[in-house]
Amino acid sequence: MNYADLTILALFVFVYCAISGRADRTPINGALVYTLFGLAVGSYGLGLFSAEVDSGGLRTIAELTLALVLFSDAAKADLSVLKQTIAVPRRLLLIGLPMTIVLGVLVGVILFPSLSFFEVAVLATMLAPTDAALGKAVVSNSAVPAYIRQGLNAESGLNDGICVPILFVFLALATGEASAQESGGLALKLVLEELGIGLVVGLGLTVILTYLLRAAMHLGWILKDWRQIPVVAMALGCFGAAQWLGGSGFIAAFSGGLLFGWLIPTGKQRLLAEAESAGDVLALITWVVFGAAVIGPYLNAISWQVVLYAVLSLTVVRMLPVFLCLHGTIASKPEKLFMGWFGPRGLASIVFGVIVLGEKLPGGDTISLTVGITILLSVIAHGLTANPLASRLGSREHLDPGG
């Protein structure tokens, strides 16, 4: 990134900050504005923004953004509500997520005959996790029933970490690094490592750092200007340590955030403010680069198969498994459809996309294009419908509390 790119980003951040209050009252969400801006100033638009960011740089920015979002959102979760309605996220993760991947594979096999079976499996896995940041408009809307908000928040916080080992297994099979006979053992090993190390690191490090933070605050050792920084460091520390040790940094960040919110039940919002602000700025940069460097170069290669898969991924592939897996819960039909619809794709899929780009798969261009278009459609569709549908659901709950 050169100085011209830095100047453009800085001015855009300043302008958006200046109008953020006004923009927040419109149905157009920030991610859509950032992406369209990146597309407009990128090499396939005005050519003002070079977007010469290598895959490692884009991946790092997206990963850190997701880690901060997961930690702060988890810390704000209402554990009492989540505990009472744990069946919803449990079913979404243990039943709905595998069904989503399987259905995504079936659709991909039909629409992309040029891709190998395992390349299609890679694509389906990349688009299975939902985005906590894009879902914030729903999970923070008091018009939405609390159990739905907490359930969707828990789902988006954990499904990307669960998908990481699955993605690596399919990548190993697609590249020939592992055989089908080895896939079962490899999958179990990766799942245990990713989830186990992620949980141990996230919970263990959070306990230690939260204890030190509380002690330092009690003794008055922390200057006022520094009080919001430790939470940012804690979130990134959980993520980095888990990744370093071979676990899932996303699982570590989310589990650490849950524990932090429980250990500091009062006054945590002030401590979390800086983490949320840092996450918002990193998210802005990620989406601008995504629009300029990912969406722009692929616009001329869009096919009807890519668009159809993207539409189906956001609708049938996501909504049908959610509707079926929630059978027998307290959710009404409109609530099941609502939860099925609000499975936005975003940062996790971008991170997965960068990982897959580095593997040089034969069908890599088709996979990257499909992921990019799906994310773009998700940003548009979920951004425009979040507040209206949330308000409509809230009105229905008010009129018919029994569902």
| Biggest beta sheet summary | none
Q: How many domains make up the 3D coordinates?
A: 1
Average pLDDT number: 85
Q: In total, how many beta strands?
A: 0
CATH class: Mainly Alpha
CATH architecture classification: Up-down Bundle
SSE sequence, one letter per element: HHHHHHHHHHHHHHHHH
Short précis:
It is found in: Cell membrane. The protein has helices at 3-23, 30-41, 55-75, 79-84, 87-111, 117-126, 136-139, 146-175, 180-219, 229-244, 249-263, 268-298, 304-314, 316-325, 333-341, 347-357, 364-399.
Model description:
The chain is an all-alpha fold. The protein has one domain (3-399): Up-down Bundle (Na+/H+ antiporter like fold), CATH 1.20.1530. It is built from 17 helices and no strands. The chain has helices spanning 3-23, 30-41, 55-75, 79-84, 87-111, 117-126, 136-139, 146-175, 180-219, 229-244, 249-263, 268-298, 304-314, 316-325, 333-341, 347-357, 364-399. Helix 15 runs antiparallel to helix 17 (364-399). It is globular. It is a multi-pass membrane protein. One of its GO terms (cellular component) is plasma membrane. The chain crosses the membrane at residues 32-51, 92-111, 195-214, 250-267, 279-300, 306-326, 338-357, 369-390. This is K(+)/H(+) antiporter NhaP2. It comes from Microbulbifer aggregans.
Give the SSE map:
Layout: H1 3-23, H2 30-41, H3 55-75, H4 79-84, H5 87-111, H6 117-126, H7 136-139, H8 146-175, H9 180-219, H10 229-244, H11 249-263, H12 268-298, H13 304-314, H14 316-325, H15 333-341, H16 347-357, H17 364-399
Helix pairs in contact: 2-12, 2-17, 3-10, 3-11, 3-12, 3-16, 5-6, 5-8, 5-13, 5-14, 6-8, 6-17, 8-9, 8-11, 8-16, 9-10, 9-11, 10-11, 10-12, 12-17, 13-14, 13-17, 14-15, 15-17, 16-17
Pfam families: Na_H_Exchanger
InterPro entries: Cation/H_exchanger_TM
Keywords: Antiport, Ion transport, Membrane, Transmembrane, Transmembrane helix, Transport
